[in-house]
Amino acid sequence: MSLIRISLFSLASRVGLLLLTLILTSCSTTRTLQPTSAPGDGKALVYFIRKSYPPYVRELRLNVNGNLVATISNNDFVAVNVPVGRNTILLEVNDGKPFSFQMPIDRAEPKYVILTGDVKKVGQAMTGYREFTVYLNWILRANPVSRSEAESAVAEFGKRLE
């Protein structure tokens, strides 16, 4: 009898550990993966501000010129150094297509970009008995803004620019 209890306890603890792992990995964080510095030395300090938008992707991965530099969760912001010149910015999500855009930086000074988006239903189809597929179009926008607009956006979720 004790052998069965140990076996069931072991199975329950493994399932519990698996559930805890899933919960922790689904949590989103905002963090920079490279140290940032004040603008200068040929680099601007760019603030990426992410407002909450559907489909409520837990985390965006921010790549600058092919290097992962930060992750951004909903209603948060991150500051990263971006070199002066023409830069490729890539935003990745777990289950979606990446969004890429060019960002020219003229001078080594602070810049501000607000990330917003929307989801629109573009169609649906019957795929079987009592089954259907809904097709969605995910729209992501990256809008350069002034410092005052950036401060207003960040204030909406109770934070301040540094």
Please sum up the structure shown:
22% of the residues lie in helices and 48% in strands.
What CATH architecture label applies?
Answer: Sandwich
Q: What's the order of the H and E elements?
A: HEEEEEEEEEH
Broad structural category? alpha+beta
Report the strand count. 9
The geometry reads as elongated
List the uncertain runs. Answer: 1-13, 16-26
Query: What distance lies between the first and last C-alpha atoms, to the nearest angstrom?
Result: 62 Å
> Briefly, what CATH class?
Mainly Beta
**Helix-residue proportion:** 10-25%
CATH topology, by name, is Immunoglobulin-like
**How would a crystallographer describe the biggest sheet?**
5 strands, antiparallel
* Tally of helical runs: 2
The percentage of residues in β strands lies in: over 45%
- Count of structural domains: 1
Work out the radius of gyration.
21 Å
Side-by-side strand order of the widest sheet: 1-4-3-6-7
Structure description:
By secondary structure, the protein is an alpha+beta fold. The protein has a single domain (28-156), classed as Immunoglobulin-like (Sandwich), CATH 2.60.40. It is 22% helix and 48% strand. The protein has helices at 2-26, 147-156; strands spanning 31-32, 43-50, 60-64, 67-72, 76-83, 85-92, 99-105, 111-128, 131-145. The strands form two sheets. Strands 1-4-3-6-7 form a five-stranded antiparallel beta sheet, with no helix packed on it. A four-stranded mixed beta sheet has the order 5-2-8-9, covered by helices on one side. The longest helix has 25 residues, at 2-26. The radius of gyration is 21 Å and the shape is elongated.
